[in-house]
Write a structure and sequence with these properties.
This protein is an all-alpha fold. It has twelve helices and four strands. The chain is globular.
Amino acid sequence: MILLACVFALFGFAGLAYGADWFVDGASGLARRFHISPLVIGLTVVAYGTSAPEIGTCLVAVLGESPGLAVGNVIGSNAANLGLILGITAVMTPFAVPRGLLRREFWFMLGATVLLWPLAAAGVVSRPVGLVLAAFLILFNVLSVRWGRSAEAGPSGGPDDGGSEPSLGRNLTTTGVGLVALLIGAELLVRGAGDIARTLGASETVIGLTLVAIGTSLPELATSVAAGRRGQIQIVAGNVIGSNLFNVLGALGISAAVVPVAMEPSLATAEVPGVVLLTLLAGVFMLTGRRVARVEGIVLLAGYAAYLIFVVL
């Protein structure tokens, strides 16, 4: 049993590694072909593609009458995106976000994150509220595309710019195949790791708080690391911000529009404040116009570790 779980985990890692490379190549090619900022591609195509596991998990959870799993997945995934993903990316490949690049997008993400506070205090996300959240996501998409078309793509195109451009069909195929490999890789890795954890005697609660949230964030992690290595900084930033927005406004909003989602009021005193603090910390590092150095990546990782310890204990 544990041997099969290890095989699943190994194949999952391979799918994440290769899928992330293909996905970033295809997405950056689409950005250049349609003269759209890589940031917009990161905020939309990449973010929504890598967030597919979150919405799938949330819908299955609420339909299976497990709203706590759905809400925990949204909050935990956002924390992982900010602390784990940005932290590992910065440690492996320190990067700089040009000053002003995220001056509008970041505040949307912070606003959506803070919105979790009154939702948790209310104890439920009703269908009308879910529809409003989804509508805000659509509004953000429209504004992002408009902002992206009015701005130059910038220097973040990275070393892949230049040379002969692949055809539209090849870009679409590369993006699609990469996304499928990412999602399959994440599923195999989470399944394998979960079986290993259960074999070793870990509780279901610990598995849910760690493997579910981190596991559904693995596509974002693999994509961000691959994009960072290629110098596609706008895709890194857009992926994290777009994924966090999609988790709150899309995954939670769409799930609540289908079935009202109950939220534990205690979330407003622990998990939600922790995510807000991680958001502010990441914002300080990204919005200063300075390089997000390895030491700052370590700080983000330490903040995420502290968040997990606080939540679990």
